[in-house]
Specification:
Length: 660
């Protein structure tokens, strides 16, 4: 098979049929597993739905449970499709790994291109048929809405993209290798190296550099670039998570990638030497790349794990380096022995490649310990189009702000947090110096408890957690996360952060974001439905700790009486309009205005809402199920606190005969 063409006669149809029939056993096994899986999944879904029905008696919740079970079934089918794509590819093109078979196929009166494309198409179809048919059966049996059908069809399409990508990639590697063992190791290794190396070193960077968030990694299509086995999974993730930009970018890239791989496979088929079978690699540098890549992945993972669990604060780099070199070299050596059938081959040149990458990796980790400027970086407000910001324990919600003044406020908060990091004490940063959630701890002593009781009505606490997601005007995203935990800031800086938080939470933009029901164009109607019940509760302050020399008074608010409100549309529209006016006029608005303080709130040294306040509760029917984003605290309920300074609302209630 040293020539590139045996004959100019094409027999694509016959070769395609032969390849398809050759995969009958694989197709039957996959089909049987799909049927068994469907039966098991549907049984589990039915049992879960029955349990939901017993506990909740909510038809919509049952339907949602069944539909989610269908999504899981198709996801599992995608995993099976990836496995059988690999098996089918190595089986269909196994003739390339046997010299007699290679010579026999070389004698077929057909071009190498026809042989390649016919076998590729026949093999792909043998995996596509059982996957598609089984997934469509799941769709028919589990979907209860048009949205669910669309979602299932999208997951099926993502699975088909993954099948073609994995199959064509596997075939390319098969053409580049002389044995099945080599090709399988390289197929799996190549898919693991890219995503694995990125994950390991992003984890290391996240554990060293303050605020660097690991979750950002999985919201970007960068992680899928050279991992065809991950295409389907990440497309599912982006679709389910609403990451539309990453979704379409990955669809486009996976299509381009697959087309490029198929084209490379064609050239590999035309130029493959017959002597490669059972012997050597068609591309000489391929085994070296895989050996080095696996050594980086194995060494990086071992070094990171050891640094997390075994090292002291002063020796993380040393421990990482030791275990990286040890495990990395062992991984490199094992793969060299497999690929070269011993120590023969270009062992010295491969070792040089390993040494170069080892020096580069350890140098990179040492550079990370300096912070690389990332620890001090705060984006300029002028370069930001919007920012998603959350201060948990203070606000407990993350909203996206686009008002320039609010963006400026958020960057000022970020800058104060950055300034609070004792960089001279922390540097060099250690591997594993942040906690598992990639939030940064600042110093070795606790943030003074005295501050909580003396300096703030709404204090930062030991559990306060900040998250910043900056969306740049150029299209890039920067994600930072910080937890106070241990803090190294003086009272002035903490007061400054809290004053900025109060400024942000008193802005008109926040007032509209915190509960969008207030600002809907159709008023309180949701899906054309008004609240079915409305209540107003009088809550009075009750002193729980008296004044004395050592302790100030503390209060809790308890409900005194509850009255029903009218659910007439005109009355409710007037009420909501009065609340809007008072909210916009409120200069000290915060999330507390929307909280139900009928439960104990003991950590404040004065009366949060004065002597009393009114708690308004509007309840919608349970069949409103797709608007949970409109309700901040509990499903189907809109709650609001009316204090004594909400004059428009109080006047409106009085004018309608309510005793307030």
């Amino acid at each position: 098979m040293t020539s590139t063409t045996s004959s100019k006669n094409n027999h694509f149809g016959k070769l395609f049929k032969w390849a398809f029939v050759r995969n009958n056993s694989i197709m039957i096994v996959f089909s049987v597993l799909m049927v068994v899986g469907i039966v098991i999944d549907l049984y589990a879904i039915t049992k879960i739905a029955a349990n939901v029905n017993h506990n909740m008696n909510n038809a919509q919740t049952i339907n949602t449970t069944i539909e989610q079970g269908g999504y899981i079934s198709i996801f599992i089918a995608q995993i099976g499709a990836i496995l059988f794509s690999l098996v089918s590819a190595t089986h269909t093109f196994s003739f390339l790994h046997n010299k007699r078979s290679t010579d026999m196929f070389g004698a077929i009166p057909s071009t190498r291109g026809t042989l390649y494309f016919s076998h590729l198409a026949g093999g792909i179809l043998s995996v596509v048929i059982p996957f598609t048919v089984g997934s469509l059966i799941v769709t028919v049996m589990t979907c209860r809405s048009a949205d669910a059908v669309i979602a299932d069809l999208c997951y099926i399409i993502f699975g088909l993209i993954c099948i073609v990508a994995v199959y064509s990639f596997s075939v390319l590697i098969v053409y580049c290798c002389g044995t099945k063992l080599d090709s399988n190791i390289i197929i799996l290794g190549a898919n693991a190296i890219y995503i694995g190396v990125i994950t390991v070193f992003w984890s290391i960077a996240s554990s060293m550099i303050p605020g660097n968030s690991f979750e950002q990694l999985f919201n970007t299509p960068v992680i899928t670039l050279f991992c065809p086995m991950g295409f389907g999974y990440f497309l599912d993730f982006y679709y389910f998570g609403g990451h539309i930009t990453a979704l379409w970018t990955t669809i486009i890239w996976s299509t381009v990638f697959t087309a490029g791989i198929i084209l490379l496979g064609y050239f590999a088929a035309k130029n493959r030497r017959a002597e490669t079978a059972q012997n050597e690699f068609n591309i000489k540098w391929l085994p070296t790349v895989i050996k080095v890549g696996i050594s980086v992945l194995g060494g990086g993972f071992a070094g990171m794990t050891a640094a997390y669990s075994l090292s002291s604060d002063s020796s993380t780099i040393f421990v990482f380096s030791f275990w990286y070199i040890l495990v990395g070299f062992v991984s490199f050596l094992i793969l060299h022995l497999i690929f070269s059938r011993g120590f023969k081959g270009k062992f010295l040149s491969s070792v040089i490649s390993y040494i170069c990458t080892t020096v580069a990796v350890i140098g990179f980790v040492i550079l990370l310990s300096t912070g690389m400027g990332i620890d001090c970086y705060v984006p300029s407000a002028s370069n930001i189009s919007s920012v998603a910001f959350g201060c948990y324990d203070y606000s407990d919600s993350r909203f996206t702000y686009s008002d320039p003044e609010n963006i400026e406020t958020v960057t000022e908060i970020h800058a104060l947090i950055i300034d609070g990091i004792n960089k001279e004490y922390q540097r060099p940063y250690k591997i594993g110096s942040t906690n598992i959630n990639n939030r940064y701890f600042y110093s070795d002593y606790y943030y003074s408890d005295d501050y909580y009781s003396t300096n703030s009505k709404y204090p930062l606490t030991m559990n306060t957690y900040f998250n910043f997601v900056y969306h740049k005007k150029l299209g890039f995203t920067t994600n930072r996360s910080f937890a106070i935990g241990y803090f190294n800031m003086n009272y002035y800086d903490c007061d400054k952060i809290e004053s900025l938080l109060k400024k942000l939470y008193s802005s008109d933009e926040y007032k509209k974001l915190i509960n969008p029901v207030l600002w809907r164009e159709d008023g309180l109607k949701i899906d054309g439905i008004l609240p079915e019940k409305a209540y107003i509760t009088h809550c009075n302050a009750e002193e729980i700790y008296g004044n004395n020399d050592s302790m100030s008074a503390s209060y809790t608010y308890t409900p005194d009486s509850t009255d029903s409100l009218s659910t007439d549309e005109a009355f409710l529209n007037g009420l909501i309009e009065a609340i809007r006016k008072d909210v916009l006029a409120d200069k000290n608005f915060s999330k507390n205005k929307l909280m139900n303080y009928s439960t104990t709130k003991e950590n404040y040294s004065d009366k949060l809402f004065g002597d009393s306040y009114l708690f308004i509760d509007l309840q919608y029917p349970d069949n409103i199920n797709n608007h949970s984003e409109l309700f901040i605290y509990s499903p189907h309920t809109f709650e609001f606190n009316i204090t004594n300074d909400y004059s428009n609302t109080l006047s409106y209630l009085k004018s309608n005969g309510y005793n307030v």
